Amino acid sequence: xxxxxxxxxxxxxxxxxxxxxxxxxxxxxxxxxxxxxxxxxxxxxxxxxxxxxxxxxxxxxxxxxxxxxxxxxxxxxxxxxxxxxxxxxxxxxxxxxxxxxxxxxxxxxxxxxxxxxxxxxxxxxxxxxxxxxxxxxxxxxxxxxxxxxxxxxxxxxxxxxxxxxxxxxxxxxxxxxxxxxxxxxxxxxxxxxxxxxxxxxxxxxxxxxxxxxxxxxxxxxxxxxxxxxxxxxxxxxxxxxxxxxxxxxxxxxxxxxxxxxxxxxxxxxxxxxxxxxxxxxxxxxxxxxxxxxxxxxxxxxxxxxxxxxxxxxxxxxxxxxxxxxxxxxxxxxxxxxxxxxxxxxxxxxxxxxxxxxxxxxxxxxxxxxxxxxxxxxxxxxxxxxxxxxxxxxxxxxxxxxxxxxxxxxxxxxxxxxxxxxxxxxxxxxxxxxxxxxxxxxxxxxxxxxxxxxxxxxxxxxxxxxxxxxxxxxxxxxxxxxxx
Length: 483
Ligand code: MG
Prior knowledge:
Elements: H1 3-17, E1 46-52, H2 71-79, E2 81-87, H3 93-102, H4 134-139, E3 144-148, E4 168-171, H5 186-189, E5 202-204, E6 207-210, H6 218-232, E7 238-243, H7 264-286, E8 293-299, H8 326-329, E9 333-336, E10 344-351, H9 355-363, H10 379-384, E11 392-397, E12 400-406, E13 409-415, E14 426-435, H11 451-466
Parallel strand pairs: 1-7, 1-8, 2-10, 3-4, 3-7
Antiparallel strand pairs: 2-9, 4-5, 5-6, 8-9, 11-12, 12-13, 13-14
Helix pairs in contact: 1-11, 6-7
The structure holds magnesium ion (MG).
């Protein structure tokens, strides 16, 4: 029997044996988190999450890129923690963002697509109101909350960030290549930057304030808004979620940055992103709140390789955005908070899923107790460089488990290249097995030599799957047949 059918069958058995299953206590993976105050000296630290779009594992100088220079981001990596086994919960935008904000795999929150993988301008769905975001969690603790940038979790009023715990919103609500006026094709995507090719809206709270958004100045304006938000809330505890529109193709950079990088246009855009991070950090320092603000820098998924040199780089990892190979979901993960985050390079497993419980621990907030949370508290690593709590990662594509990593080993059950590529879905009769610490490029299959390791990983996958049933897909809600 093929493995994915095994998961489906075991799920079916679970469903018929118990109509209204209760969540076993041990599945709430919050490692004893409670409303008790975290053991940090900082009362209610501020939190900033800088979330890049389609930035690959190899796109920072601190992660090995030879010609991109990112001194401001690299400083966070060297004075804070640089994680080298850090994963997103999806290889594409919308589910990755939902997972970061809720600490739950996309399949639990209506974001495991059946036909579609992300939201489009015609979509009628979004992140369900019943989900609890980091913003909602922190509002309970009196935090001021803002989002600047790309939301991509539903653009109809009932799904906007202002309905999911954010006091304010400023940004382009979905991907910057959507609403293509002149056709969606590589000629337009990789051609001369022209904001009129993309009729994407710029929103402030629940209103459209500009259309098409002038993407040439979008990173500059997002950054000015971020600095203003920090200044306005310097005396409050605040949560700023800062998901950039860049470096998703089509690329745009402000004129000051054009022609400034050895890496070409993509490098120019990276120079502006790095400048933006520098502006955020220098604002914290000027206001003397840098030691009471956790800054996280990461990316929603790997590089969009079909965009050629307008897309990023996975470095030494295999494949990119859209896939469950390492290049699709392993991303830079940087944590910075002088005096609280102990500097170092961390090889423990971590995930964007872990941000919600980690932030809860640092702020004294309550992790939702009425649902399964897939994230783990990373504070033992961040504060004391103790062993991390995460030992596995599940790699979903749409509603199916394609691969599972447990400790050093990753087994693939289904493989598939990036969309629009030629290698279609392959449901494997026998899994592939890679030691992704020895072999991050996933070249050398050890399956034949290690059947017991594969069995162990299959058991983990089945046990996870029994508690993660397929849900309806919010991403497949359309007013009528699409197109
Ligand atoms: Mg993306």
